[in-house]
Amino acid sequence: MRVKYTLKRLHDVTRALSLRRRFDRHDTWSREQLERHQREKLSSLVSYAVQHSSFYKKLYAHIDTKREVNLHDLPPISKATLMDNFDSLVTDPRLKLSELQAHIGQLTRDDPYYLGEYRVLATSGSTGLKGVFVSNRKEWRTTIAEYLRCAAFIGMKPRLPNRWKVAQIAAGSPVHVSYRASVSSDVGQFKVKRIDATTGMANIVTALNAFQPDIVSGYPSMASLLAVEQMEGRLLIHPRTIGTGGEMLTEDMKRKMREAWGITPHDIYGLTEAGAYLGSECSFHRGMHVFEDLVIAEVVDERNRAVPDGVSGARLLITNLFNFTQPLIRYEVSDMISMAAEPCPCGRPFRTIAVMEGRSDDMIYLQGIAGGEFAVHPLNFHGPLEAFDEIKEYQFVQEWKGIDVFIVLRQGVSADQMADRVKKKLKEKLESLGARCPELRIRPVERMERDPQTMGKLKHVQSNSKPR
Fold first, then answer.
1. What phi and psi values does residue 259 have, to the nearest 5 degrees?
2. Using CA atoms in the order 159, 163, 168, 171, what is the torsion angle rounded to 10 degrees?
3. How many of the other CB atoms lie within 10 Å of CB of 413?
4. Contact, 321 vs 379, CB < 8 A?
């Protein structure tokens, strides 16, 4: 069984390498070529979905799918809609949600394909609802190719005989796409050391010092903590590249990594619904290129109307152009982003994300000084705490009777003095915005607990108190 599994992985990664080389050629396309490619792929996807998915056949009953499809004529779908209609949405009637969930429950590192031909993944449910995503082997090879493409974007093209040593500090679960893609590509391409982000920092530092990676990949909050460990002399590594994804990368996190290693991290947009990655920064660091030959990304407002480049939207609508097993067409993602108005100097035809502002789910609602309810953007919580170099890590949790502010301090810092300074800074910020400052409970802790159920990600701003 082990030999058969390895042979499948070798075959898949070989095909993925060929796909990645084809994707490289797309870098030289004109914008017109790219948009024509998108229209052709969309029409094929919609036609297939209507023929093989009873859900889409009903949803698109009023649309003439025999002509070239107008994307804006297609109604968006949410994750709740996807999961509620899973069995009728997928295009293979053998795929049943209950059976796929049972398959996920018994996965190990060397998991077999479901029915011998399907890769099954799950999202962490950090926004409240877990998702299950399935692709056939051909589609999974495209996902591996996406992984290899991101690696190339950040300077990690495969090399032999001295393979790149990659330390990946992220999800420890085999159902998560970052874990699964790295395992699938770890066949002669890279030497990968996977470290669960929920592992204690002392153990992570010990493992990295022994491994001495060329590339460090992980959540930005974790990479920022490692930068502090390096600056304080416990971590002794010399990576040439840092890749971050899965959380919002702030300017303060970038600063710490530059101070620790003299390099600017490459931000990568991980998104299971897009296969594995929606996009990546290139060497110019002018924003994350969206892989628009594989995905159509629409930045829209609350009513799903397109917003201009340079303007932040309320959400994204994602259309995966290569997954025909589980078609995701105008699928809602709560990320708030804006696209750059100008092209990247690298010359690629793909648009870049100028600003990543977090998820609309992260908005905090407080009472306004002038009355009524006041929405506070999560960025307004990041800024005040990032002004304190004494704080290694932080998290805001809104409850009914106030906000708990958890902070991890550097050694030797007075917790009482820091608590007073943090409370004052936050109060000034919130009141300057027009919000009434709630009770702030500053809670110094030794470390942030990272939940395996959310793949070890740290949600910096979260509300357990719904808007009234």
1. -65, -40
2. 90
3. 15
4. no
Sign of CA dihedral 423, 248, 176, 5: negative
According to DSSP, residue 321 is labeled S
Q: Which of 231, 197, 217, 211 is nearest to 447 (CA)?
A: 197
Tell me the pairing of strands 315-320 and 335-339: unpaired
Three-state secondary structure call for residue 172: coil
Q: Could you give the count of Cα atoms lying within 13 Å of 2 in the half-sphere of its Cβ?
A: 1
3-state secondary structure of 145: helix
How large is the average pLDDT for residues 449-468?
69
Query: What pLDDT, in 10s, does the model give residues 325-374?
Result: 999 999 999 888 999 999 999 999 999 999 887 776 667 888 888 888 88
The CA distance from 208 to 201, in Å, is: 10
**Per-residue confidence (pLDDT) for residue 5, from 0 to 100:** 65
Q: Would you give the DSSP letter of residue 157?
A: -
Instruction: Fill in the DSSP letter of residue 306.
Output: B
Residue 38 φ/ψ, nearest 5 degrees: -60, -45
Q: What is the mean pLDDT of residues 306-325?
A: 95
Show the domains of the chain with their CATH numbers: 2-359 (3.40.50.12780), 363-463 (3.30.300.30)
Give residue 264's pLDDT band: very low, low, confident or very high (50, 70, 90): very high
Helix axes 379-386, 415-433, angle to 10 degrees: 140
CB 251 within 8 A of CB 218: no
Vertex 393 angle, CA 392 and 394, to 5°: 140
Strands in 86-234 per DSSP E: 118-122, 132-136, 164-170, 190-196, 215-218
Q: List, for residues 80-132, the tens digit of each pLDDT value.
A: 999 999 999 999 999 999 999 888 878 766 667 899 899 998 886 555 568 89
The CB-side HSE value for 181 (13 A sphere, CA atoms) comes to 28
Pairing relationship of beta strands 364-367 and 266-270 according to DSSP bridges: unpaired
Question: Omega before 112 cis (within 30°)?
Answer: no
Using CA atoms, how far residue 377 sits from 76, 219, 268, 360, in Å, is 25, 21, 22, 9
Give 403-432 pLDDT, tens digit per residue: 999 998 988 888 888 899 999 999 998 988
Residue 280's SS3 state is strand
Q: How far apart are the first and last CA of the chain?
A: 55
pLDDT of residue 370: 84
